[in-house]
Design goal:
This is GntR family transcriptional regulator. The protein is of the alpha+beta class and 268 residues long.
Length: 268
């Protein structure tokens, strides 16, 4: 397989259509929701960095001229959304992708069996800047042809050696303007979760995501990467990751080999 990327070498996701659900416009926000919005604005503006403690509830109540109970309710929702983390006896902290609680919450593939550990061995094949294909630009809210970074990597089972075939192949597109100086060499030097790297080095935090799943055939390209027959079934997971204000900051197309793994989620 050639190391040179071309748009035809990746099955690009379809652009959002008019049939995709759109959020309803808010007419009225309860007071705690207004405080929540102000806290999110402070997070977006990096008033408090990832991993840093936010002010005490009493201080925030005085700042916003509301009751402590109103502030607590806003913080409770942000904690439930994994934007803040409460630590007993220590305070409330800005969530970070370095934190064990949130490190792998976007990776939903689990091994069959009692331990259910997800793939951890990362191998990067490429990172290059190119004009955004039309579908990628539409997903990321960019002008056609705007600069994007394309990353391809594979993930293997935890503890797997180099000879073991990976179980995930991911194509990742990022707005180039948000990730200046990102190169394959920098990715290869980084050993931890990719989102933690984006957060620490580029001040870009993925706070939530939307996913679409479908079954596809591997094809010759992915079959070679994952050690499969071209007709083997794969689970295709398209993910659009958003930051604090809902702006899209990453489009990721993953292909999962589910022969010994399964996609896991919990619906509350």
């Amino acid at each position: 397989m050639s190391d040179r990327f071309s748009a035809s070498s990746v099955l690009l996701p379809s652009a959002p259509s008019a049939s995709d659900p759109a959020p309803a416009e808010a007419v009225y926000l309860p007071l705690y929701q207004q405080i929540k919005a102000l806290l999110v604005r402070s997070l977006q503006g990096q008033e408090w960095a990832p991993g840093q403690a936010i002010p005490a509830e009493t201080e925030l109540a005085a700042r916003y001229k509301v009751s402590q109970g109103t502030v607590r309710k806003a913080i409770d929702e942000l904690a439930a959304e994994n934007l803040l983390v409460r630590r007993q006896g220590k305070g409330t902290f800005v969530a970070t992708h370095d934190h064990e609680q949130t490190q792998f919450r976007f990776l939903r593939l689990r091994a069959d069996g009692p331990e259910r550990e997800g793939p951890r061995q990362r191998r990067y094949q490429r990172c290059e800047q190119l004009p955004a294909p039309a579908s990628v630009a539409a997903h990321l809210g960019l002008a056609p042809g705007a600069g994007v970074l394309h990353i391809r990597r594979t993930l293997g089972a935890a503890g797997a050696d180099a000879a073991t075939a990976p179980v995930i192949c991911e194509d990742i597109w990022l707005p180039a303007a948000l990730f200046p100086g990102l190169t394959l060499e920098r990715l290869l030097r980084h050993k931890g979760p990719l989102y933690a790297f984006f957060e620490r080095e580029f001040n870009v935090r993925m706070t939530r995501a939307r996913e679409r799943l479908r079954a596809v055939a591997a094809g010759p390209d992915l079959g070679t990467l994952l050690g499969l027959d071209a007709h083997a079934p794969l689970l295709q997971v398209e993910r659009l990751s958003l930051t604090y204000d809902g702006s899209p900051v990453e489009l990721r197309l993953g292909h999962y080999d589910t022969r010994e793994h399964h996609y896991w989620n919990r619906l509350d």
